[in-house]
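Task: fold both queries, return tokens.
Query 1:
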Amino acid sequence: MTKVTKYPSPLVSLLPIFVLIILLFFTIRLFGSDALGGGSQICLLTSTALCAAIGMAGYGIPWGDIERAIVNNIAGVGNAVIILLIIGALSAVWMLSGVVPTLIYYGVQIIHPSIFLVSCCLICAAVSVMTGSSWTTIATIGIALMGIGKAQGFADGWTAGAIISGAYFGDKISPLSDTTILASSVTETPLFKHVRYMMYTTVPSMVLALIVFTIAGFVYVSDANIHFSLFTDALAERFHISLWLLIVPVITGILIARKVSSIVTLFVSTLLAVVFMLLFQADIVREVAGEGVSGSEALFKGTWMILYGGTTLETETEVLSELIATNGMAGMMDTIWLIICAMCFGGAMTACGMLGSITSLFIRFTHRLTGMVASTVGAGLFLNLATADQYISIILTGNMFKDIYKGNGYESRLLSRTTEDAVTVTSVLIPWNTCGMTQATILNVPTLVYLPYCFFNYISPLMSILIASIGYKIVKLKK
């Protein structure tokens, strides 16, 4: 192994990121929402190649080191890839089994449009606190709420923003959340001490977001352009609506409450939905299977097609047809491809020392409390952009600032809270981050479309800096 004596300067280290941003700008401008189908992946791989070329040619970094870092990064998202595949199958079978249509059917009649957005946010927050997972919350109740939002005439960006704001509130403060546990463990902060301390920034951020969604709901309701009764009648005509179908989400909730593994929970929920689909929507399964097969063969073929591929059913309204269309596991492949390419970029940036070089810039501003917290927020946001993974960003941010906070005499809980404020909630706002890609795919709403409406997610890091500037509940340790 070649000994590396010098790493790239911050200016050189920023070059691959600037190239990536420029390439993504033109790619998204030319391809629009189709950029996920290959254009964005090429951008990431091109930037990875540039990063590796600079490291190898200019600084003598061995290709073997870069390759190992890339492989380790990709291995680290193996669990996420499995979850994505199962979510693809789950979202399809929850839709065509009638579970989501039933939730939409009753939800449209129960939730008044004027309070829909704020209710949407609160529901997802409650579910996410109980589950500890924004991904599970969005993949289940989030999909149903998107349907209700469409029925009530809300723009997709508003509905998705309310769903994501609520889901990431719970993901951030739930003691069951993997990011919450990771942030507390990396900074050596007791878990519940970390959770309690986050309330000082998280609760005000959520209150502000709820105020915005409440006002928006009362203002936006007049724009509803779909008559509710026509929508619900169309659902009832296409699907067998039954309260018995709600057994599926209830059992899923029980599994979550018992802290069963996410993969096991999602798999069991998918399997249960398949059973209810065959019991309640057998005609739809046969329709998906097409002509040429009948009986049990049609049910078998239709089920398999729903789980792995795309399905489209004709309805009375174009909006409803678009809503109940599914993509199955195949619909997740572009996202998985993009995640792998993003991990290549993050691995190359790490191995070439570029991440360390850039983050060293933030350390210069850590002598005062506000500057230290703002530097942590800036570093967390940058790492989310550069590594495309919130877990890597949490680990790197915590390790980079741990000694600085300790040396300046501040508690570790201040670092753990700031890390979560900066990393966990902003990961979903970045189109090429694993969270941004996943939620955009699940909700079928591009990241840049829902980003302006995720009020909680970008208020949180600003609130962290504001609280630091005030000095509220921030105590210096005695030396």
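Query 1 returned. Query 2:
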Amino acid sequence: MKKVKAIIFDLFDTLLHDIKFDFDSGLSYLHENILSEGTDKAEFIEYAATYWKDLYDKRNEDNSEIAFEDEVLDFKNKYGFKVNYPLEEVLFNCALEMNATELFNDTVSTLEQLKLLDIPVYLLSNSIFKKNVMKKFINQFDLEKYFVNIYFSADYNIRKPHKDFFKIVFDDIKMYDASIEMEEVYFIGDNFEADVLGAYNFGFMPVFINRKKDTVINNKNFIVIKALEELLEVIQGDGVNVPSI
């Protein structure tokens, strides 16, 4: 196992506890606050659940991504807006309505120690919201400062485990340091198929953060941690001296 030279994190249920995701709450926010007066809620929900649901379901077949921004613009064309809010503000409010999240208690301390180690850290996450919105979302927790760069699937129309999505961040890592090899990049995520197998199939070293303590799915004996702080023990085992903070 090669010494770690770069680290990529997944976001939801890796750095942020995704307490609840409720897509319909975002639609309700749009109907109540944004769409033109007189928009029939039942008809609006039905339209979203038919036309757009088929597109979202397709993601599971080909690992494509749909940006929620496209959906909102479609709603604007179809129903009109009663307010003149900037689109980014509307999308950010939708993201807040849909996602109930909180920091895991070891997220910041782990990121702080990685910063002291001077290991470049990146974020690569599946999300229906683009980077401009997700920057605001993660900065509720003051997280962006820890990353060299952040990537979200909505910006690229592909999602993990698509190899091209991993390649985007690896190309960036190579610009940071051309000597870094794939197997020297550790990818930390909670989703076994998208994060662990996706990273492994691309050529990264996957680290499975298994907070649910599932003993069945890790049949390839990948590195497993049960909490984020255990990543520092893995790095130390690779010969990296982890400082105290």
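Both queries returned. Flag for query 2: The chain has two domains: 6-19+102-237, 20-99.
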